[in-house]
Amino acid sequence: xxxxxxxxxxxxxxxxxxxxxxxxxxxxxxxxxxxxxxxxxxxxxxxxxxxxxxxxxxxxxxxxxxxxxxxxxxxxxxxxxxxxxxxxxxxxxxxxxxxxxxxxxxxxxxxxxxxxxxxxxxxxxxxxxxxxxxxxxxxxxxxxxxxxxxxxxxxxxxxxxxxxxxxxxxxxxxxxxxxxxxxxxxxxxxxxxxxxxxxxxxxxxxxxxxxxxxxxxxxxxxxxxxxxxxxxxxxxxxxxxxxxxxxxxxxxxxxxxxxxxxxxxxxxxxxxxxxxxxxxxxxxxxxxxxxxxxxxxxxxxxxxxxxxxxxxxxxxxxxxxxxxxxxxxxxxxxxxxxxxxxxxxxxxxxxxxxxxxxxxxxxxxxxxxxxxxxxxxx
Length: 378
Known about the structure:
With about 375 residues, this protein is mainly alpha-helical. The chain folds into two domains: about 5-190 and about 200-290, Up-down Bundle (Rhopdopsin 7-helix transmembrane proteins), CATH 1.20.1070; about 300-345, no CATH class. Helices cover about 60% and strands about 5% of the residues. It contains 13 helices and six strands. It has helices spanning about 25-45, 50-75, 80-105, 105-115, 125-150, 155-190, 205-235, 240-245, 245-265, 270, 280-295, 360-370, 375; strands spanning about 5-10, 80, 305-310, 310-315, 335, 345. A two-stranded antiparallel ribbon has the order 1-2. The chain has a two-stranded antiparallel sheet with strand order 3-4. Strand 5 (about 335) and strand 6 (about 345) form a beta hairpin. The radius of gyration is 41 Å and the shape is globular.
């Protein structure tokens, strides 16, 4: 039975997940490998302006380091403390979940490189769904790991194991959903090959982009294999799978390390473009679309141009004034009544000029015609 003081020997502790003597060399090697990846991820994040992606990866690596520090402490002490067990369980369970979140964030920029018509989902709910998956996984796994390692109570232990299995199962479901969406996207691209979005740079035609896709797919399947193993190992407590440290170091430690190392070798900022930041291609493309929709050509300025005293013409060309001289000269004839010969209009006269005298001139002429000479009357 576990002692109430918080320490228990490996043979006497009934409520511990770890039921074997950890290997100092194996755990120390994995601890060093995960530690090496941290500065590499930080440098790549600053170099290619992928701070969010790099921070997510570094968080997962730090959790792995915490987990293997706990395992190293367990290998150095004859009587393991519950704190060491808790560190080992928390770190090695939560780290792959955080690394999976970094992979989930890579789908929108990959889709944007080909075109929005190939997306198998709506971009508005992509991040919401996967963030919800990760948050639920982290809560269940953290609470389950603490209950199953810290408290000396069989009821809490069993309840913690159930929560831990539920968190691992939800993590596995999120990975399968991501794989299904990626498979649907690959089918859409294959069926409509040649109709890719040419408005974006032809990133998908490069060899490094294809290698990047291969690396992302391989990392995802490595995490799927690890999560399947860990779910079975935790669900079947005290089984041969749970008691084998070799399986743990290979299927849990080595697979997670390979998946993370692939993400560093095929770093998204490097493979997609050196100028693209972590804000994803989808966000950049939507920004460009928004700018294209908002921008409009400058309105045409309408100017008045007068070429006749009583006629006004509007020019539809900005900066130009319409004048009678712009028209080709033509000759017009006006036929007069009472058999008089027709009058020919000068070619210099605009055909639109009115031949009727202005009203003011006609009024004055009529007044003069109707006036009576007073001298003749007298």
